[in-house]
Amino acid sequence: MAHYTTADQIDLTAVAGRYGLTGGSITPLSGGAANSSFRLASEQGEYVLTSLDNHDEETAATLARHTQALHRLGLPTSEVVPTTDGSLIAPIGDRLLVLKKWIAGAVQQPLPLALLAESGDLLARLHALAPDAEGLDDVPLSARRLSSEHLAAIPGFADQEFAQWLTSRLDRVRDAEAGNLRAPCLIHGDLFDDNVIVRDDGGLSVLDWETISLDDPLLDLGMAAVGLAQDEAGLLATDRLHALLGGYEKSRPLTAVDRAILPLEIEHAALIIAFHRYHRHNVRFPNPGKATYHRAMVRFTESVARRV
Q1: How far is it, in rounded angstroms, from Cα 269 to Cα 297?
Q2: HEC-encoded secondary structure of 193-212
């Protein structure tokens, strides 16, 4: 099973000492598939304290540096708070902690239709950032795509029907993508509604840069369509997709070729998510309660060709 940090495992006295805080208390926050987060209230203000449960010190520092760089470039995202000695992460006991300023607002699931245009605009702003900006010069290339190790695992899936479906679809995507990829840019890779804060001032902030990489912007748009443009039945919702694209195209218009290839990249994104859901809940951390979680992505994928 995956292991996560609980509030009683946080040495709050040590945290306060590292960050120069007084009068602190923490409350667990829901969500988070890879890490554990807490709302930390102190006399100095409110923060989010995250235990990077699935990171080593190097990857934790990289994540914190990327997050801070994006904030400094003006993207509405978390602001990392350094320790008193200037470090962006705090190794305390056997945990790696990062502190971020609290963003006043809430996650809304699903994200309201009226806010999808702003989500698209935020994605366009990210795609326009210089990928070699300070703090981002080590962003990996194409890390959101399935790796050779991932692909090699598919034939061994117990659900052979799913394995064959996934392999066939991925082969089709790779064949269609050949020669059709756009210049790589910074992508978020996981713009789902649980990674978007609707701030109290009405604006949006984007969270969670675990999957940042350099890749085709249309793959990122495809992933955002999977994360933000589903209807109540879990199928692609054309009105939500059009709203998302409308916001994106205010500053980054799509060409006719882009529009023609976009359905393929929405499908590609759904296949990536389908793989990870199956692999996580049936291979890495078997969980009978989520053993069929991937099937929702099968249904979503099948809806793309009918609705775009």
Answers
A1: 10
A2: HHHEEEECCCCEEECCCCCC
Count of CB atoms within 10 A of residue 31's CB? Answer: 12
* Residue bearing tokens 């703090």: 135
Question: Which domains can be identified in the chain, with CATH numbers?
Answer: 7-102 (3.30.200.20), 113-307 (3.90.1200.10)
User: Cα 199–200–206 angle (5° rounding)?
Assistant: 5
**In contact, 293 and 234? CB cutoff 8 Å:** no
Distance CA 37, CA 222 (A): 28
pLDDT in tens, 60-98: 999 999 999 999 999 999 999 999 999 999 999 999 999
> Is the peptide bond preceding residue 140 cis, with omega within 30 degrees of 0?
no
Average pLDDT over residues 203-217: 97
Report the predicted TM-score, pTM, of the whole model to 2 decimal places.
Answer: 0.95
Report the pLDDT value the prediction gives residue 122, as an integer from 0 to 100.
98
- How many C-alpha atoms does 143 have within 13 Å on its Cβ side? 16
Q: Which residue bears the tokens 């945990």?
A: 95
Confidence of residue 33 (pLDDT cuts 50, 70, 90): low
**Sequence-distant contacts of 60-68: CB under 8 A, at least 24 apart:** 60/89, 60/96, 60/98, 61/88, 61/89, 62/138, 63/98, 63/209, 63/210, 64/88, 64/89, 64/98, 65/135, 66/135, 66/136, 66/139, 66/209, 66/212, 67/100, 67/209, 68/135
Tokens 């890749």 belong to 215
Compute the half-sphere exposure of residue 225: CA atoms within 13 Å on the CB side of its CA: 32
Contacts of 65 (CB under 8 A, 6+ apart): 88, 135
